[in-house]
Design brief:
It is built from 14 helices and five strands. It is an alpha/beta fold. The chain has one domain: Rossmann fold, CATH 3.40.50. The chain has a five-stranded parallel β-sheet, sandwiched between helices. α4 packs across α6. Bound molecules: magnesium ion (MG).
Length: 257
Amino acid sequence: MSATREEKLSESKVETLCLLDVDGTLTGRAGRECVTSELYKSLQKNPDDSYHKAEFINHNKMVSKLIVGLKLKENMTMGLAPNAKNFLITMIKKGAAIHLITKNRAEYVKALFEAEGLSENQIKHFKFSDVNSNKSKYGAAEDAVQKHMENRSLKYVIVCDDNTEDFRSMEYATKEDAAEIEINGKDAWFSSQLYGGNVIGRNSEPGKFNFPDILKELIKLEAAAAKEPLNKASMFKAPEKQQDIAPSDELQRLTIK
Ligand SMILES: [Mg+2]
């Protein structure tokens, strides 16, 4: 499905891209424990099959079951972690692009978000790459970064995943090309700013992500950029050609007494 004109226009102004895992990152329960839970199985028409082959009951029934199920003590950590919902809503309001890169199923995540009170419009704001999208976390993150780099407005990338390996692969996807480009021997972190992107990365225990802190860091970077008249693009312009010719007569006259 191709993007509408409005979508393209709003994408062209995106300054912040969020690459977020779902289970254990936005929720308090790691993926494996989520997809093998009673509650998850109760949403499957084929509970004996693995989650990636799950055929789910219809969306509205999933939402209803989740609303009831998430209130039970044993399922509470399957819901959105404290502050994760506020973070998502704040990032939507800021016009950030939010890619949810999960090994779970997009159908489940959408139903979960609705059960947790996110609106249809808010949920439409998210782009999903799930277990059946045939993309690794690295591949999905790389696609998202490259797509947004084309808009030349991207300044910040936020990467969060409770799985350390997945976190590293997504974070690396924000830096890969930059790592291949060396500027005066500067390291990948520095040259990653060739993308225009400062990377705020977090790898925490399931349910322990400090989203207010991530937001604070983003706001600090935005404030610093607003004070800094020199934009990033000009920082990395080829240096002006050095004057390697003898000073002009005029200059000599002025300087030699
Ligand atoms: Mg996870």
